[in-house]
Structures are given as C-alpha cells and as structure tokens.
Amino acid sequence: MNDETMFAAGVDEFGPASTLAVSRRPVPEPGPGEIGIDVTYAGVGFVDTLLRSGAFPLWTPMVPGIEVTGRVRAVGRDVEGFVVGQSVAALLNDFGRGQRAGGYAQVAVAHHTMAAPVPDGVDLRRVTAAVVNGVTAWVALHDVARIDSRDRVLVLGVTGGLGGTTARMAALFPARQVIGVVGRDPDRAPAACTDVVVADALADELDRITPDGSVDVVIDPVGGPLRATAFEHLAPFGRHVVLGNAGRDDRPFSGDETWLATRTVSGLSIGGVAHLRPATCTKALTAVISLVARGILDEPLPAVEPLENAGKVHEALENRTAPAKTVLSMP
Q1: What residues make up the domain containing 139?
Q2: In what order do the strands lie in the sheet with 215-220?
Q3: Res. 324 pLDDT band, cuts 50 70 90
Q4: H or E element: which one contains 310?
Q5: 230: in domain
Q6: Nearest-angstrom CA–CA distance, 309 and 306
Q7: Residue 204 CA to chain centroid, in angstroms?
Q8: Is the pTM of the predicted complex or chain greater than 0.90?
Q9: What range(s) does the Enoyl reductase (ER) domain occupy (predicted)?
Q10: CA–CA dist 97, 48 (Å, integer)
C-alpha cells in the first residue's frame, strides 16, 4: 500500500465554494490502462462548480478538476505510447468508467485514451486552458454538427470559455459566418467572430446580418430563452447542438417543430460518452494540442492562480466575474 500523500483541493461534502479546501490526501496509483501524472496545471471550468455543489449524483469526498497538464509519473499495465517524464495533457471526465476527476491535485490519474503527449517547449498554461473546451468544441463541430465552409454558425454564450473556444474553432474549419451572442458587452467577444449580437436583440439582428434570418448550426451551452430563439432561426437541415445548460433553464424542443422544419437537435457530453467512444476523444485531444502547439488555435493566455485559491475561482465563476479561463498551479 502506498502511504505517500499530496496536496489537493476538494470537498468532503457537497456545498458552496467555501467548502473547497486544500488538504493532504493519498496519492492515487494508476491501474490497468491508466497513467499517473505529476500535475503542473489544472484547468477550472463552470462544470467544476457543478461537481463541487452536488449537481450531479457523484461521490464524496470529491476532488474536482477534469483537465490537467504535467508529466507522466507512472504507467499502468497494458499502456503503450507513454513514458515516465513525458509531457502530457489529459481529460479526467470519463465518469462512465467509474470515479475520475481529481485534477485539483499534485498527482492525477487518467485513462490512456483520455491523454495525449504535448511537444516539448509548448506553453502548458495555454494547453491546459484548451483541453476540455477544445475537445468539446472539436467534437461538437467536427463529429456532431459536421460543419463545412457554407455554414453560418451561431454560438451562444460566446464570452464564456467554451463559447469562445468554439467560435475560434469554427473560424478555423472554416465556417462561412461565425455569429457570437453576448449578454451585454460586444467588445468581449472573440475576434474570430464575423458578427457579434446582443442576446436581447438576437432575432432582429439575425434578420439584419443573414440573408434570410437563419443559421445552419447553433452551438448552445446556455439553455433558457436563447435556446428557444436560436432554434426558431435554424435553417432547414440545420443542426442545434446542446453542450450545456449554464442558465439552469432547460427549455424543451418541440418534436413537431423539429420534424416539420427539418431540423436536427443533438447533445454532447464528453464525460458521458468518453468510455464508449475513446478513439473520438483521443483524436480530438491530439488535434487540439497540435493546433495550440502550432499557434493555429490562438487561445488567450489564462489567468493563473495557486491551488489554495480554487474556492475563490469557483466563486468568480458562479458570480460571472471570472476571466474566460483560469488554471491552477500546483505547489
């Protein structure tokens, strides 16, 4: 039995951000098909606040954190392609395999299909900031929406981490038009957007900036009234991809409207499908790392906070005052 301990930020019971505290916990060991990682940076996203608060039927004690970068510490049985000391990025949200997460810690364990090498010399801060959002955006655009150069893409919540990354990724594919939807300040939208509209004026603005007021793809991590408005403006054969419900207002879709207007509604939860489609995650993560390493996916440099500030970062995310992306540095 390994008696070694590490510092980790977690909760013993689900609760508010103030319950997230740093303590010593046992160092996890990789099992078959897994690798151990000495974590350099752990990304923080809104989904982590949901893990911490008990929004999902998970376990306690819980260490959040579903994206990390660092170096391989140990290699489990039946793993090829990784060596100790190698720089890697990994996703820790393959909950279908059993317990995972654990990124807010000095050591994390990942399944080898959810990890990929990072070339030497690449800024791990930028890679960390792009792991979850980049993989989600890649799969949403490439595998679910299957966008092409003729598509007009509408991205809801474009000032958020996932929305911003998806807009930048859509511009690379490239889409004909990338329309970002913001709550108030258009200046906060990514430069990759060809057009930026304020949420309250979405319907009128789509009539103004598109030939017929419609779009081909909706990327929807928001939910609520925006979801309904965006769906109403989806063109025939359009694809509405649901990536979340940040507004906590789950608006249903009409089966008749979907059928009669010849539209498609799809959902994507990387955490829910990773264990069923591992190759999809591996390919997406490898692509994202390559795009960041070559400077093609130009993700903003994230804010960096020490591990002990994890609770403050969660508070800022919940208050909508956080930067687009924050990563935690390990002690």
Answers
A1: 133-271
A2: 195-198, 177-182, 152-155, 215-220, 234-242, 264-267
A3: confident
A4: helix 310-318
A5: yes
A6: 6
A7: 30
A8: yes
A9: 15-328
A10: 18
Mean pLDDT of the chain: 94
Question: What pLDDT digit, counting tens, does each position of 258-288 carry?
Answer: 999 999 999 999 988 888 999 999 999 999 9
Helix/strand/coil (H, E, C) string of 24-49? Answer: EEECCCCCCCEEEEEEEEEEECHHHH
Q: Based on the fold, state whether residues 18 and 67 are members of the same structural domain.
A: yes
Residues 52-81: b if buried by 16+ CB within 10 A, e if exposed: bbeeeebeeebbbbbbbbbbbbbbbeebee
Query: Buried b vs exposed e over 28-47: b needs ≥16 C-beta within 10 Å?
Result: bebeeebbbbbbbbbbbbbb
Q: How far apart are CA 196 and CA 202, in angstroms?
A: 10
What is the distance in angstroms between the CA of the first residue and the CA of the last residue of the chain?
24
Going 280 to 267 to 165 to 66, the CA torsion angle's sign is negative
Asked if pLDDT for residue 1 goes beyond 70, the answer is no
DSSP assignments along 207-244, one per residue = HHHSSSS-EEEEEESS-HHHHHHHHHTEEEEEEEEE--
The letter for the amino acid at 250 is D
Buried b (16+ CB within 10 A) or exposed e, 105-144: bbbbbbbbbbbbebeeebebbbbbbbbbbbbbbbbbbbeb
Look at 71 and 250; give whichever has higher pLDDT.
Answer: 71
CATH number, domain of 118, equals: 3.90.180.10
Together in a domain, 266 and 140: yes
Strands 177-182 and 195-198: parallel
Let me know if residue 128 belongs to a domain. no
* CA-closest candidate to residue 235, choices 264, 271, 276: 264
